[in-house]
Amino acid sequence: MVKLHFFVCALLVTVLAERAGAQGSEIELLVVPSLTDMRGNSFTDEYSDATFHISAGIGYNYVLQNKFALKAMLLYDSKGADKSFSTEIRDANYNLIGIGETKFRNDFKYITLPLLFGRRFGKRVQFELAAGGYAGVLIGQQFEISSPRLHHSVDLTSNYRKLDFGVSGSASVYWPLGKQLSLKAGVLDNLGLADIADYDVDGGGTIKNNSLGLHVGLNIVLK
Question: What is the total count of domains within the chain?
Answer without folding.
Answer: 1
